[in-house]
Amino acid sequence: MEENTTGKYYYSIGEVAAMFNVNTSMIRYWEKEFDVLRPRKNKKGNRLFTERDVRYVHVIYHLLKEKGYTLAGAKAALKEKFSDYEEKVILLETLEKTRSFLVDLDKALAEKQKK
What we know:
Blueprint: H1 13-20, H2 24-33, E1 40-41, E2 47-48, H3 51-66, H4 71-114
Antiparallel strand pairs: 1-2
């Protein structure tokens, strides 16, 4: 398994909830409602979310919280066009990372010019 950019293989449910500013109970609820979201569980029963699981949560979050879909509407949309939504989320994540990189670069250049 490849290491991701953060150096982690798995994320806890608390970390995933914090990424999307929702409660852990919301993540557990989405896990029950959406077949696509199936994180692994360790021997203690703790959920272990992979990068792909986090992407699924992002797609679900996007549909429910950003687009305003109902639960039934989000389920239907995922069945019909999951790959389309996944591609959009991947693009959004890439753009967010690029923006963050550019902002950090701008700050570093500004600091360098001050010297």
